[in-house]
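Molecular record:
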Amino acid sequence: MTAPSAPGHWLVKTEPGCFSIDDLAAAPGRTTPWDGVRNFQARNFMRDAMRPGDPVLFYHSVTSPGVVGLAEVASRAYPDHTALDPEGGHFDPRHSQERPLWYMVDIRLVEKFAAPLPLALLRGVPALAAMELLRKGSRLSVQPVRPEEFQAVMALARRR
């Protein structure tokens, strides 16, 4: 899958037990680095296509999966320093300051939805039939969203 043309629309997945939308709301400036991404395709989306101001659907995975809010990209991509920490869970010995392998962007909360949009609900929306999130086997933690898909998700959020 290729990244959309600018402006991009995105979806980021997170396990709420690890980092939830409430954690993002509590972060200073409601902003956090989106670090620890260790998939080359997701890394490429962040490094090569995400731009400040791009809208981001915030998705909770695992328990009660669904879109729970709207965020925005708050920075250009920069090297992910967590890959340098041998004591951390995202260490990669191939990554260095001189030759960074992994990148991250900052994400800022725009709004937490009044009610989550469960995965089962999203699967029933014809306008979302081709959405990357709904593809069988799709596991990307950072993925592009087509503008019409983004609009359909936002329309659902406004109705709840």
Observations:
- The longest helix spans residues 147-159.
